[in-house]
TrEMBL record:
GO terms for biological process: glutathione metabolic process; L-phenylalanine catabolic process. This is Glutathione S-transferase. Residues 83-204 form the GST C-terminal domain. It holds the Pfam family GST_N_2. PANTHER family: MALEYLACETOACETATE ISOMERASE. The lineage of its organism: Bacteria, Pseudomonadati, Pseudomonadota, Betaproteobacteria, Burkholderiales. It comes from Polynucleobacter brandtiae. Residues 1-78 form the GST N-terminal domain.
Length: 204
C-alpha cells in the first residue's frame, strides 16, 4: 500500500501513526497539493491528502476513512472499539480534534494565500474561536483521566495528539499547554511513543 501525503499535514500524521501502531507497513509518497504540477487530483478528485492507494490500485481518501480501514487490518493495538456506543464516543473525539485542525488550516490559509488587503480578521477570529472552544471541551472531557476514552490509547488520543501538535507547529501563540495542563500531560505521554516520534513534523 502507498500513502500519499505531506510531512506537515496533521491528517497525514494521524493515519501514519495508526499504521505504525498497527504495525502495518506502507510506503509514504510525498506530494505538495499546492504545487502547480501536483498530481493529487489524479488520486483524489478533491485534491487533498492523505490518500491511500491499495494493492489493487483503488484509492481511499479522508483521514477518518483511512484510519478506520487501517485499524481493521490487524488485531494489534485496536484503536477503535467494536462496541457501537464506545465506537461513537471515540469517533466524536476524533471529529472534535479534526475540527481543530480544520479551523487551524482555514485560518492559516487566510494568512498565507490571500493578499493582505483581502484578508478577513473576522474570519480568522471565527476559526480561532472554534479552536479555543474545542480545546476547552477536550480538556473538560479528559479531566484527570490517563486516556481520552477507556484505559488504553485509542484513535481519540491519536487525533487529539495530532491536533495539539499542529497547533504547536503553526500556532505557537495559542497557549494551550499552560491553559490546559491535562492536555499537555497527554501530549507529552504520546510523544514518548515511537509512532509519534517518527511522525514529528519538520519545523521549517
Amino acid at each position: 500500500m502507498k500513502l500519499i501525503g505531506s510531512l506537515t499535514s496533521p491528517y497525514v500524521r494521524k493515519v501514519r501513526i495508526v499504521f505504525l501502531e498497527k504495525k502495518v507497513d506502507i510506503d509514504l509518497q510525498l506530494e505538495n497539493v499546492w504545487a502547480a504540477d501536483t498530481q493529487m487530483p489524479s488520486f483524489n478528485p478533491l485534491g487533498k491528502v492523505p490518500c491511500l492507494i491499495l494493492e489493487d490500485g483503488d484509492a481511499i481518501y479522508d483521514s477518518r476513512v483511512i484510519a478506520e480501514y487501517a485499524d481493521a487490518l490487524s488485531p494489534v493495538s485496536k484503536l477503535i472499539p467494536s462496541d457501537n456506543r464506545e465506537r461513537a464516543t471515540v469517533k466524536t473525539w476524533e471529529t472534535l480534534a479534526d475540527g481543530i485542525m480544520d479551523a487551524g488550516i482555514l485560518a492559516r490559509l487566510e494568512r498565507t494565500l490571500r493578499p493582505a488587503e483581502q484578508q478577513s480578521q473576522d474570519w480568522v477570529d471565527r476559526q480561532m474561536g472554534k479552536i479555543n472552544n474545542a480545546l476547552r471541551v477536550l480538556s473538560e472531557q479528559l479531566g484527570g483521566n490517563a486516556w481520552c476514552h477507556g484505559n488504553q490509547m485509542t484513535l481519540a488520543d491519536v487525533a487529539v495528539g495530532c491536533a495539539v501538535g499542529y497547533l504547536l507547529l503553526r500556532f505557537p501563540q495559542v497557549q494551550w499547554q499552560t491553559q490546559y495542563p491535562n492536555l499537555d500531560r497527554l501530549y507529552q505521554k504520546l510523544l514518548q511513543r515511537p509512532s509519534f516520534m517518527e511522525t514529528e513534523p519538520p519545523k521549517a
